Amino acid sequence: MSTTAQIGVTGLAVMGRNLARNFARNGYTVAVHNRTASRTHALVEEFGGEGDFVTAETAKEFVAALERPRRLVIMVKAGGPTDAVIEEFAPLLEPGDMIIDGGNAHFADTRRRERELRERGIHFVGTGISGGEEGALNGPSIMPGGSTESYDSLGPMLEKISAKASDGAPCVTHVGPDGAGHFVKMVHNGIEYADMQLIGEAYQLLRDVAGYSPARIAEIFRTWNTGRLDSYLIEITAEVLAHVDAATGKPFVDVVQDRAEQKGTGRWTVQIALDLGVPVSGIAEAVFARSLSGHMALREASRGLAGPQAAPLGEAEAAAFADRVEQALYASKIVSYTQGFHEIAAGGEEYGWDIDPGAVASIWRGGCIIRAAFLDRIRAAYDARPELPSLLADEAFAREIAAAQDDWREVLAAAVRQGVPTPGFAAALAYYDALRAERLPAALTQGQRDYFGAHTYRRTDREGSYHTLWGGDRSEVPA
Ligand code: 6PG
């Protein structure tokens, strides 16, 4: 066995297999390994012509096939299986070698693994990879964390296999130390959930309020995809809506059960946001909408509840309504990204990662599931003002929301009147209105807390904390 492979991939399910092929197609010699060797051989039999592969049947063979410092990519299920594979390989590695975890790991696990392996002299590179099977093969968006030293060695290879944005920039950056890469991938997925939910609400409104068929809505999404909403998710939405079920001749979307599943990364985004105290209400509504859809018994038991029946509009009004929905969708999307980037900033601060938001927006421009023309605008906003406190503070975005808001409110009013659930649009607008409000009812909340629990409050006109003697003469005392 020659020790010439520049990179190794273990775990050859579809993502691992495609990533290995991507490295090989880009001229790297790739060692490949899988728990069951038949998969390894199948890969080389089928795709061996695409480049140079070195097959390894055992962990020892695999490690021996790699040039030093070794770069070993593990593409296995997040959680226990990742720890098991690390334990299998780490004892065979030497100081300076790198283990790259390309799965959807929880960033807290990545932090732990990085720390443990660092003590053994091994670089652990928790890496978010987005783009599904197709992206893994033809160019994903890659979000590596870990040490600068590991990025120096790995970065050029990742840049080569990554997607390229429209200006040719590779969709990979060194996000930050330890868990930073997986954290950013987690937020990417949270935003993915929010994007999908908002698109779903737009579809439902076009169906129930505008009265359009799925095929017609597909056309509308195709048109939107040529404008500022230009994105992968809008593009595939048109494809899914235009698809007709071969067995029944019905629109495909009408024969699929309306229960959305989730593997958990969107939920993590919300859990972590709660811990960090970051309001990601749009992302949270997207996660809750998926869970609600799955409560079949609850939905069945609630079908008879009173409410309006949506009555479709006439042709001319429907067309005007569709334009309004585009405005509402775009404004809500700006809010989702605002919330997601807030979480990245808060995570970066909490864990000392120093994440560059402009660089994150830049690498999301290509390859990943949320890739969109819009991300170039976000990149430009952060590049112009790295300390931008919020995307809504960017003048261009603020102007666009200002122009969209009347329609946004109209769409929500129509949804409420006609009983079409739009939690994502509504949460986004509530967030926007809360942020711009002069005064919030939080003052009343503080009063209530002080009343029942003597939790104290601060005054608008003086420094210090105070308590009112609610049970006594209601005089105020300093706390
Ligand atoms: C990506 C996707 C990918 C995966 C999600 C789906 O960026 O390539 O986000 O990671 O498709 O995990 O998530 P759910 O199964 O939770 O919808």
Provide a count of the helices: 20
Span of the ends, CA to CA? 75 Å
**Helix-strand string:** EHEHEHEHEHEHEHHHHHHHHHHHHHHEEE
Largest sheet: 7 strands, mixed
Instruction: Give every kind of bound small molecule, once each.
Output: 6-phosphogluconic acid
Question: In which range does the helix fraction lie?
Answer: 55-70%
Describe this entry's structure for a reader.
The protein has 479 residues and is of the alpha/beta class. The chain is built from 20 helices and 10 strands. The strands form 2 sheets. A 7-stranded mixed beta sheet has the order 3-2-1-4-5-6-7, with helices on both faces. The longest helix is centred in the last third of the chain and has 37 residues, at 315-351. Bound molecules: 6-phosphogluconic acid. The site of 6-phosphogluconic acid has 12 residues, from helix 8 and helix 12.
Question: What can be said about this structure in brief?
Answer:
By secondary structure, this protein is α/β, with parallel strands linked by helices. Helix content is 56%, strand content 8%. Helix 15 crosses helix 19 and helix 16 packs antiparallel against helix 17.
